[in-house]
Amino acid sequence: MNNGKNNNHNHNHNHNHGYPKAWVVTVDMGYGHQRAAFPLKSLAYGGKIINASNYAGMPRADRKTWRESKKFYEFMSRFKRVPLFGEAAFDIYNKLQAIPSFYPKRDLSKPSAQIKETMALIKKREWGKHLIHTLNKKKIPLITTFFIPAFMAEAWEYGGDIYCVICDADISRAWAPPDPTQSKIKYFAPNYRVVERLKCYGVRAENIFLTGFPLPKENTGGRYLGNLRHDLGIRLTHLDPKKLYTSKYALTIDEHLGTNWPPPKTKGPPTLMFAVGGAGAQREMGVEIVKNLAQKIKEKKIKIILVAGIRNEVNQYFKRSIRGCGLGSHLGKNIKIIFGENTEDYFKKFNRALRQVDVLWTKPSELSFYTALGLPIIISTPIGSQEDFNRKWLTTIGSGIDPEDIDYVDEWFFDWIDSGWFARAAMQGFMEGGKYGTYNIEKFIKHKLAEVKAVKMTLQY
Fold it and tell me: pTM of the entire structure?
């Protein structure tokens, strides 16, 4: 059984690997869209993921348009913290891309201002034309993790199939094309709500596939989820030392984890990971958490992993602050920092570290879907409408919870462990989240030539 180790290599030479390869296209707007593309690398033609907002030979005008939109996005994420004006300005920005209420169910297919603007930019500036014409030399399936490259592909008449992977638990009208009934774009949806939402936006049912969010193979460990079941077994022992949850649901756990339950005796404190967003928002919070857990860290009752992503200034800020609280000697031992030279390096380190993590503390970004790896999530403040919906999804399936007062994290965090709550949340994430996204998308592309309907029937969620 492939355990995901050899998936990302040796793909450069064997394009005719028995199934068609695809163009895997992402954009550099926060980590979300790139994180969704990374696990699909084994499908990518030449083993390379294409960054639509930054690729070799890209026209200067295109680069400028992408840079402007990214700058604005990051500026708004950070500006939100400015007293008085920040919240107000962000609210206006948020309303522009807000997700309408789901009920009453109604026709929401009328294009929003955001779409009209996007399409005008594509047409007027010939935005993306160069990219699509370049890719069109090989009319293989095009899979993108952001809506704009999908719209570009359609506008500039890409000859192959166009697929769009959705990165949130609910989406605004911006994700659906201006004229959804005429569009050939097909969607890979991460959950049931997105499937229904796309229908409200006018996308034809036969163009929507419930796949789940693409999770890293090194964390799932093949179609039978070997690594995931193994890691979850160990995690449950860390998260439920008093066996309040695991003894009550022994049969269920046994049924789902099989030989991985109960694991060989595993001692050791729980590991908490705190991840900041791509714009570096909420970094101060990571330091607050460490400060308030300082005593427990010294007593070896908890391990902490802080995620700095690819921003060295966040990495340095974490290091300075940890030394500042007198915990310098614990750096690299009970406190680790994940920092990557580039996104690929960061994702590899992040995915590897995640296998040791027991609780993930993050804003409800695309990382919300990582709860399917059997990870309980402490949800920090959402930024933007789609994150409000991701938060709602996490709390609905029972694997995410809002934190109590951060000043007393050293109390409530351990109460939640003693009560077995985290163990329950871990199991809920595993049971209710979509675990097979990467495999479903691969299966889909491999059998593209076969009957689409037949594939749709065999997708696992």
Answer: 0.91
